[in-house]
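Incident review: delayed structure delivery

Summary: a single-chain prediction request sat in the queue longer than the usual turnaround. Root cause was a stuck worker, restarted by the on-call engineer. No data loss occurred. The affected request and its eventual output are reproduced below so the record is complete for anyone auditing the incident later.

Affected input:
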Amino acid sequence: MNKKLNWLTTIAVVTGLCAAGSAYATNGYYTHGNGTKNKAMAGSGIALPEDAIDITNNPAVAPFVGDQLIFGAALFSPSRKYQTTDSMANGQCFPGMGCAFTIGPNNIKSDSNYFVIPHISRSWQLANDSAWALSFYGHGGMNTDWRGGTATFDPDGPMGPAPVTTFDGTYGAGKAGVNLNQAFFDITWAKKFNEKLSLGVSAVVVAQMFKANGVGSFAGYTETFAASGGTVMPTSLSNNGNDWSFGAGLKVGLHSPISDKISLGLMYQTKIWMGEFDDYSDLFAGQGDLDIPADLKFGVTFHANEKLDLNFDFEYIWYSDVDSVGNPIQLLFGCPTAGAGGTNLSNCLGGDSGGGFGWDNMAIYKVGAKYKAGEDWTWRFGYSYGKQPIGNDQMTFNILAPGVMESHFTTGFTLERTPGRQFNMSLMYAPNVKVTGPQNFDPSQNVTFEMYQWELEGSYSWRF
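Output delivered after worker restart:
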C-alpha cells in the first residue's frame, strides 16, 4: 500500500465494517480498551502512543504516531446465564401488599455468544507539529438473548391487563433480551507545542442501534398506560425491531513526556448526547433517551529501559448520570399504576424520571507492560479491575443487561518482519462473576446472573 491510498475509499470500507459488526463490552458496557496493543495491556497505556487507533484513547497523541493506517477486528464471546428460585407468591396479588410478578423458576443461558467488533484508523502528520486523524470503532454495547423461560402474574393486577398467566421468554411472549450496538467516529486534531506537551481534541459522532424483545408485560408500568387511566396500551415498549439514534460529543486530551523515564496522559470525553429511540419511548426514561456516559482516563508510563515500558492507568465512567442507565428500578413503584400507592407519572417507564437499570459509576484500575524481545517481536501483558456497576437490589431489569465483569487478564504480541508493517494480536479473559439478589417484583424469590468472557483480536498496520 502506498501514500496514494484514497482516504475516501477507506471511509467507505470502514462504514461497511461498522455496519456489519456488533459491539459488546466488558467494563459495564464500555470495552476494556481500544486498539489491539491497548487491549493487550488491559486498556492501559494512554501515555504510550504507538498506533493511529491510540488516538481514540487520547487525541493528544496524534503528533506522536506518524502517518499510519491500521485496521483490525475482534472476536468477542460473552457467556451469560441467569437463574431464578422458587417463589412463594407465584404471581398472585395480596391485600395491602400489591401483586407479584414471578419470573420462572428459570435457569437459562443466553444464545448469540460470538460477535465481531471492527476498528480502523488513519492518521496524517501536518506542518507545525500538528496532526489529524479519522477513526471508526465499536466502543460499547450490550446483548442478551434469552429463550424458553416462564413468568407468572395476576392478569387483573398492574402488570395486566393482558389475560396471560404464563409465557415464554424472560418477561414476555417469545424470546426476550436486548441488543445495543454503538459505532463511534472520531475526527481528531492535535498539536505538539514542544517536546513535553501536546494537546488534542476530537469531535465524536456516534450511531446507536437498539432493539428489545419480551418486555411487553411491563405495559402497566408505562407513562402512556398510567396517564390514560389504564385505557391506552403502549406501542413503543417492546418487539419493535431495530431503532437508530445519532448523537455527538467532545473528547479532549493531553500528552506529556515529562522526561526520558516518565510520560503522562489525560483524556476526558463528555457525555454523548444522543437522539431518542422513538420506537422504545415507553421503555427508556425521558421518552426513549439513552445518552452515552462521560469518561475520564489518566495514565502514567514508566520507560524502564529501551526494552521495557510499564503502564499505570485509571478510568472513571459516569453511568449514574444517564437516567435510563442510572435510575434505580424502585422509582417505578412511584408510578400510579404500580399498585404501591404512587402518584408520580414521571416515575413510570418512559417518564422523565422513569426507572432504569440502577447502575453505579465505575472506577477501573489498570496495569500493563510492553517488552521488546528483539528486532521482530514485542510482547504485552495487562490486568485491570473495576467493581461491577450493578447492585444486588437492582436485579430484575438487569437480567436484560448483566454487565458484571470485574477483572480482565490480557496478553498479546506484535510481529514486524518488514519495517513499517506490523501484525498485532491480543487475547483477553474475564473470569466468571456472579451476582445474587431479590427479584424486585417478587421479593420471595432470588435472581442470580453471571458471566465470563474472552476476546481474540488481530490488526495490521502500514506506516507511510
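Verification: The first strand starts at residue 68 and ends at 84.
Action items: add queue-age alerting; document worker restart procedure.
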